[in-house]
Amino acid sequence: MGTVSNNKENNNINSGREGVRGWLNPTRYGWERVSYWLQRLTGLFLLVYFVGHVYETSSITNGIDAWNSMLELTQTIGGHIFLILVIGTSTFHTVNGIRLIFTESGKGLGKPGRPDYPYNPSSLNYIQKSGIWVALLLACIAMLYGGMVLFGEGG
Amino acid sequence: MALLRLRESQITKIHYLTGILSLFAVAIHIIFRLIMPFGQSLSYENVVANYHNIFYVILLESILVLISIHGFNGLRIILIELRQLHRWESTITILVLISMVGVIAYGTRTIVIASGL
Amino acid sequence: MSNEDNKKVILKVYRTNYNKDDSPHYDKFEVPVKRWTTVLDALLHVKSYSDSSVGIRYSCRMASCGSCGMKINGRPSLACYTKISELKDDVVVCEPLPNFPRIRDLVSDFSQFFSHHKNMKPFIQNDKVSLDIDDKHDLVEFEQTHEDVDRYLQFSYCIRCGLCYSACPTVATDPKFPGPQALSQAYRYEADSRDDSKKTRFNIIDERHGIWRCHFAGSCSVVCPKGVDPALGIQLLKGHMLGLSKNNKKLSNLRTKNKE
Questions:
Q1: Where are the domains of chain B?
Q2: Beta-carbon contacts of residue C151 (< 8 Å; ≥ 6 apart)
Q3: Signed CA dihedral, C94, C98, C103, C109: sign only
Q4: Which of the 8 DSSP states describes residue C22?
Q5: Could you read off the pLDDT of B74-93 as tens digits, one per residue?
């Protein structure tokens, strides 16, 4: 049939590296890859929040007015939604992090053995998958609870 | 600098340990916000009263140190995986250490001043 | 003749020649397929009847040599081990393996990958045994139980096809990282009761771009066509290095061959 398309690509493509796109795309290799992706993104998000939190709470050193005006900034709908995101991401990062500490210590992975077709890897077992699902579920529950506390008080 | 010569396995152990310890410390920190209505717990008087409690001050300082180490080491890991030039890696390591010390110093300043209010 | 016998698919093949500064493009070929046609069969059909210049690397056609690794419909796979009927798609896209430098068409350069493998010293090292033996009577045997063998056998099935290396998200940005194949081989020798060079290998992998850059994304084990499960080996090795899990390895006894 011969050539029917001629899609020009990036000149650097002959290095073959997927680059940042490689780790930003969590869709191709199952739940463990999704968890890897989420753990990184939530970690980065939480670090940004942590630095911001250290900065915002420093307003207490400038007296009651500075503290109250800082509180006003956070007591908005946007501020509440941001805080709910912090609750969700920190819950996921914590629960999944605990799973990863066990996993990277060699626990909950199964034992090496003689592989048989269709070669289902023992390391990607249901202990690991349920760990990820539990982390996601707990993050949702925590966000729901956080939402109730934050919005339940009428802001 | 001995800190820069730590083996990666030792840094990993520190990363895990700071992660686990900060979980407990942050849990107590959050409980302090939930023992009374959330808005009330953040009132100026209440927060200043918290800073006068020596145990709470120790807790806040621990959170500050633990999360700074854990978070900035996480950032270092992500950044050194992105590029591998020797100069980039050294710069990243030094910048991350400076940021970590900077955040800890800034947070400590808040704690010290607030506990004297 | 049933409809299945007349089925055809479009094979979209990545084409380029970096030695000639050729700009990358995709060529499309219509290929007849049966239920058992593999992607490699289809590519060989293209080479025989449409365009003999399509560059592919292959040898055994039975998932033993690890030569025909490529990205098939977005996932690293062995062309000889992937049936077109199982892809459930009328268009099959074949691209070179990600994370490997590209040479021509579907052929990639494995030199860096092999050098990572070599860095792990993938052979038995034992201080009790001399490697310079002149007399066959000086040959020795190691005693191993079935349990000893089961600890590493799975990892010795690696065919160095590079699929795990191309699926790894760390390798995608960090060429200094040894990758799942090399690290699982480090575990394979660490778990082998005949090998006593644990410290040497630990020193090799316990560095900035070493084993700790693995974050258990598990993609290597998902794509491995031989059931090696590199992620398992790497996590077990990490556990041993951290001192959080035990190897339970007892070094094999030596049995000197009886003189004839």
A1: 7-115
A2: A112, C191, C192, C193, C249
A3: negative
A4: P
A5: 999 999 999 989 899 999 99
Could you give all domains of chain C from N- to C-terminal order, each with its CATH number? 3-108 (3.10.20.30), 111-242 (1.10.1060.10)
pLDDT of residue B2: 54
B79 and C CB contact within 8 Å? no
Domain extent, residue A75, equals 31-107+120-152
Dist. CA A31–CA A20, nearest whole Å: 19
Chain C residue numbers with beta carbons less than 8 Å from the beta carbon of B7 are 206-207
Q: Which chains touch A (3 or more CB pairs under 8 A)?
A: B, C
Is position A10 within any domain? no
Q: Please write the tens of the pLDDT for every residue from A64-117.
A: 999 999 989 888 999 999 999 999 999 999 999 999 999 999 999 999 999 888
Q: Which pLDDT score is estimated for B113? A: 94
Percent of chain C exceeding pLDDT 90 equals: 78
CB C71 within 8 A of CB C97: yes
ipTM rounded to 2 decimals: 0.93
Split at pLDDT 50, 70, 90, the class of A9 is very low
Q: Work out how many domains chain A is built from and give that number.
A: 1
Quick check: is A4 in a domain? Answer: no
In a domain, A60, yes or no: yes
Q: Which of C173, C215, C240 to mutate to test the interface with B (most CBs of B within 10 A)?
A: C173
Q: What CATH number does the domain containing A36 carry?
A: 1.20.1300.10
Which of B17, B81, B89 to probe the C interface (max C CBs under 10 A)? Answer: B81
Does residue A58 sit within a domain? yes
Q: What is the C-alpha to C-alpha distance for residues A117 and C157, in angstroms, rounded to an integer?
A: 13
List C-alpha distances in Å: A148 to A6, A72, A94, C248.
55, 19, 21, 51
Question: pLDDT tens digits for A12-43?
Answer: 457 788 888 887 888 889 999 999 999 999 99
Return the CATH fold of B7-115.
3 helical TM bundles of succinate and fumarate reductases (1.20.1300)
User: Does A14 reach chain C within 8 Å, measured CB to CB?
Assistant: yes
